[in-house]
Amino acid sequence: MRGSDPDASLYWLARMLEAGEDPLYIARRLVRFASEDVGMADPQALVIAVAAQQAAHFIGMPEGNLALAEAVVYLATAPKSNSLYEAYTRAQQEVTQGPSESVPLHLRNPVTPLMKDLGYGKDYKYAHDYPEHFVEQQHLPDSLRDRKYYTPSDQGYEKQVIARLKAWWQKKRKPEREEPAE
Known about the structure:
Layout: H1 6-18, H2 23-38, H3 44-59, H4 64-77, H5 83-97, H6 113-117, H7 158-172
């Protein structure tokens, strides 16, 4: 599937099923593949993989083989991106190896008067109150303020993600300082 070859993908699926491999093991691998190898290039891949798992579990074998085959062909022919996998790996590494950072005060919900007095929720900007439901505000701790984990690829749906992120963040930021012409 990673090589985008639906014929080989179907062949190896049939080999595994006919050899007696647990169909739910295969389904688990399809779900993982949908997130790891297709990822945000086609977010529907995860929906298809989970639906195949549910269908195979619900109707059993041998009828469940077609649900798995449909998912295999879909995943093999979907655009591929491992940017989500890489982004999560970077964030996970930050969390496990870096210091334990606190949630910025403005993002904390002030559910008691004491919390409000301590500054919880102060200056919080509710995105839905702004045009395009976007407002620039810091969501990471100060020490990680400019950290980037997710870099969308140029594959499939991620092209739209790139455009959306650029539209949101570039128009809100001050223009780069131009160097004087020589």
